[in-house]
Amino acid sequence: MLTYDVLIVGSGGAGLYAALKSRMEEDLRVAVLTKVYPTRSHTSAAQGGVNAALANKDPTDTWEQHWFDTVKGSDYLADQDAAELLCSEAPEVIREMEHWGCPFDRTTEGKIAQRPFGGASKPRACYAADKIGHVMLHTLYEQGLRYGVDYFNEWLTISLLHDGKRCQGVNALDTRTGKLHTIQAKAVILATGGYGRIYWNRTSNAYGNTGDGLAIAYRAGLPLKDMEFVQFHPTGLRRTGILMSEGARGEGGFLLNGLGERFMTRYAPDKMELGPRDLVSRAIETEVRQGRGGPEGEVFLDVTHLGEEKIAERLPQIRQLCIGFEGVDPIEEPIPIKPTAHYSMGGIHTDINGLTSIEGVYAAGESGCVSVHGANRLGGNSLLDILVFGRRAGNHALEYARSVDLPSMPKDMLSSAEARIKSLMEGDSEETLADIRRDMANLMANQAGIYRDNAGLTGAMEGLVELKARYKRLKVRDKCKVFNTELVAALELENMLDLAEVVAQGALERRESRGAHSREDFPERDDKSWLVHTVATRGSDERPVLHFDPVTITRFQPEARTY
Ligand SMILES: Cc1cc2nc3c(=O)[nH]c(=O)nc-3n(C[C@H](O)[C@H](O)[C@H](O)COP(=O)(O)OP(=O)(O)OC[C@H]3O[C@@H](n4cnc5c(N)ncnc54)[C@H](O)[C@@H]3O)c2cc1C
């Protein structure tokens, strides 16, 4: 059996930062297990920037102002002690990245350059053209190799092992051979990214963002928090959902409706296009619903006035994606866009060190929920979250692993994972994976998307019960063991169905509108009843059971949120 002190599941920024932190203490055996090649993790797709109040562009910026912007952006649902850590530790983690060789863009004086971002009162997003995630992830991967982290690439984690009190390790499938393994570990850090793919046809997320770590934790009895809060990014490409970074508006891009009007004057007269994402996405949806969209229900992101030189220097990837996937050159014409499911505010419930309620089990990054983003995340704060809380989880896990012996393991650790795979692989069925996945995605986009109401969400819950029943009849058609991507997709789909149910249930029960959660039948924020976190655990009938926990408020009393 493979044995490690600290095992990290996921090789995005959160996982790699945590791994690096644990492994820099040379006495510990540290491994990263990832279902893709490490540098293909979704972090590499991040475009616009990472926030830190370095005050390089505006010398009056402070981390306290960043803290306030984050709490206001969260619609007051963020825990303020956690958000304080996020913002006060930001300059330090950015400098650490810089010292590891992360190639940020520079000002003329040689300082790290910063650009304005949505919902931020000062320009504080540090960037590298429009490829910040790519350069961050490569920097962390290189450093991991340097410090001797072990990598298990293209291994799919299937379940978390614990004895009710203490972490024991994981079960995982080596997709190259089709063999199941148990990996024993004193500490496991789940850093598996978000669950944006539950909106399969309308998301900016990588194909792998199926929320595996959350579903694994949920099945292992751990609570998930604030799952109904799913961020729709205002500017996804019209037909594919591929992201057009907020950096495009940060550099001065406009939003135009089908009539050519800069409609943001109606919704955020001060911040205009740089309003927070929830507000801008709703503005777009409203324009389209009221008949002011383009022919395919889109609006337009216009950067033509920035000119060829600036677009080539600051937004080269955006231009390439736009030409490649939409046939439109943004130098010459406005980009057709629609809001796209982008970020999972919800996640595995953790404390400020990423620790869950089981000793030795941690979660960090988009799969965790500390919570620093509350009901709506600000652009540039997620890459920061993965650094700050990846680091904290790594540090805490390493101290823990030092303090305990290896956990004891019963003999039949593999049996339930084996049984799950066997039931998918043996026999035939009429159901296909693609059909169930498409029906789930349509249900979620139409009934649990940007705007929600009681009837739609009740229907979504019923629809999901039906989809889960169909899933039970599903059989994988490809019977091969080696690189069986259909089997992987089937296991991912089961995860997504579980999470979709938690999202819809939370959205149904939360009878108010806050941040990204917008109920047409309860349009106001209701601090008296709903200034609480939604916490979901899996009931004995496999359906979500919810309870509500208080929000930590330290400095900023909730106020009306206007921009
Ligand atoms: C297109 C796009 C642009 C973005 N731009 C920005 C930006 O400019 N600024 C910003 O702050 N944020 C941005 N974000 C958000 C930010 O990039 C992500 O929230 C963040 O990178 C998530 O990092 P992570 O480490 O938590 O997970 P990810 O980078 O998503 O990595 C997840 C990892 O988990 C592994 N994994 C998953 N399931 C399993 C399993 N079952 N077994 C084994 N391994 C598994 C995957 O292989 C992967 O390595 C953007 C997001 C997108 C989608």
Automatic annotation (TrEMBL):
State the compartments where it is located: Cell inner membrane
**What SUPFAM superfamilies does the database record attribute to this sequence?**
FAD/NAD(P)-binding domain (SSF51905), Succinate dehydrogenase/fumarate reductase flavoprotein C-terminal domain (SSF46977), Succinate dehydrogenase/fumarate reductase flavoprotein, catalytic domain (SSF56425)
Looking up InterPro entries in the UniProt record yields: FAD-dep_OxRdtase_2_FAD-bd, FAD/NAD-bd_sf, FRD_SDH_FAD_BS, Fum_R/Succ_DH_flav-like_C_sf, Fum_Rdtase/Succ_DH_flav-like_C, SdhA/FrdA/AprA, Succ_DH/fumarate_Rdtase_cat_sf, Succ_DH_flav_su_fwd
What does the record give as EC number? Answer: 1.3.5.1
Has the keyword Iron-sulfur been applied to this entry?
no
What domain of life does the native source organism fall in? Answer: Bacteria
Give the protein name, as stated in the record. Succinate dehydrogenase flavoprotein subunit
Gene symbol here is: sdhA
